[in-house]
Amino acid sequence: MSGMLNELLKHKIVAILRGIENDKADDTARALLEGGIRMMEITMNTDGAAAMINRWRERFDGEAYVGAGTVIDLDTAKLAVQAGAQFLISPNLDEEVIAFGLERGISVWPGVMTPTEIVKAMKAGAEAVKLFPMGTLGINYLKEIRGPLKEVPILATGGVDLDNIAEYFRSGANGVGLGSKLVHMEWVKDGQFLKVAERARAFTHAVSQLS
């Protein structure tokens, strides 16, 4: 088990930052840290994503683990790793990306939906998978997947909110990916970083209560 998977299993939440504006990014990351979030993913389809990853690695070294999201192919993976991404998350399963991560000792958590894709990802060397889109699949789908596939670490992404996060974990999630339910972009645009920190604290508290 890699150090990064250990961190995922320990902290349980990955903050997903998609489309964040460069001049608001650092204050947002600091607010998330204040709220107890330790794992942050900047999606590669965000303007200036590579530069932000690079800056955060330096600025929040030792405080946050910074990864890249929406890593849909090998070229994107190379850009992300060059920028300093500590983990790569995809909405899709691309075995070239997994192989690239393995070569460089970078954790890759590919997006999967079906049991076939989950097994394929594990065979290709992924140490965990991102079950997506959970908002559409629903918690019962996760429970059913867990019947035959007990050992696979699953990062459930989509549909998670404060009122159902505990149920996600009871149903078999090992971690959750949180986007707009965690980081309200309206708050970010308005510079309401205290609200971002409070929201983060509410989620980290909910996760700390899990048995």
From TrEMBL:
Pathway: Carbohydrate acid metabolism. Keywords: Carbohydrate metabolism, Lyase. Its EC number is 4.1.2.14, 4.1.3.16. It is an enzyme of class 4 (lyase). Pfam families: Aldolase (PF01081). GO terms for molecular function: (R,S)-4-hydroxy-2-oxoglutarate aldolase activity; 2-dehydro-3-deoxy-phosphogluconate aldolase activity. Homotrimer. Belongs to the KHG/KDPG aldolase family. This is Bifunctional 4-hydroxy-2-oxoglutarate aldolase/2-dehydro-3-deoxy-phosphogluconate aldolase.
